[in-house]
Amino acid sequence: MLVMVVDDDLVSRLALIDLMARAGFTDIIEFEDGQDAWNYLQKGPMPIMCCCDVRMPKMSGIEVLQNVRRNDRLSELPFILITSGSEREVVNKAIVLGVSGYVVKPFNRNSATEKMLEVFNKTYKTVAEKPDATALRLAIANDKLMSYYQAFNVQVEDLIKYVKSSPTSDYTDSIKEQGAALNQGCLTLGLWHCSKQLDHWETLEIDLELTIDYLSPILSTVKYQITLLNEDEQ
Predict the structure, then answer these.
(1) Are residues 118 and 158 located together in one domain of the fold?
(2) Which terminus of the chain has fewer CB atoms gathered within 10 Å of its CB, N or C?
(3) What pLDDT does 85 receive?
(4) What is the pTM of this model?
């Protein structure tokens, strides 16, 4: 599952990425400026969560949040603001704008991780179906669902390899067809967020790098589902 980190301070950004990785988030995209992050959000896949610093050049975290909440496709993006303890006025404005939570600098590992997981746990129900519910809906055993996940993973990896080796002009139709097939697989496996992102991708002109950006988060989402399924087995 794709998460976004935006902070112009390198050390703070690295510390936040480390905290997110320790919390179990492995598919992390980073930006050092709000404008660059906003440019990506407009054309790229919507992350499942964005952690964004308040004070940055070009575009502040508050401005990114405003743009996100005004955008039909992105308006529900879980958004955590990174702020200092003295910026109460900024925090109040962010609350009015619909911020999902905030983390205070300097980071405290336990409280920051707790906040990120709190926001994630609230949004997970809109991201994907729990594996046990998927198995029940499909009327299959957990080991059979595991084989579905693994086969789907291979299908996604194969399309990524195909995209990397394909000239856009010659293979556009084939890539679109295979992407549509993946979308159906996402729906079958209850990967709702991934399906919504592929719906949007299908409306765009084929761009190889951007296509990979849309496909890669599916792999990390399936990986997370497999982790949950293994926990259910224990």
Answers:
(1) no
(2) C
(3) 65
(4) 0.91
What is the C-alpha to C-alpha distance for residues 148 and 154, in angstroms, rounded to an integer? 10
Q: Tokens 């009015």 map to which residue?
A: 96
H-state helical runs in the chain: 10-22, 34-43, 61-70, 88-97, 109-127, 131-138, 142-164, 168-188, 192-201, 208-233
One domain for residues 177 and 211: yes
Same domain flag for 137 and 108: no
Quickly state the pLDDT bin for 26 (edges 50, 70, 90): confident
What are the two backbone dihedrals, phi and then psi, of residue 231, each rounded to the nearest 5 degrees?
-65, -35
* Integer Cα distance of 51 and 13 in angstroms: 10
Place of tokens 């529900």: 76
SS3 28: strand
- Contact by Cβ (8 Å): 27, 49: no
Same domain, 154 and 105: no
- CA-to-CA distance for 27 and 30, rounded, in angstroms? 10
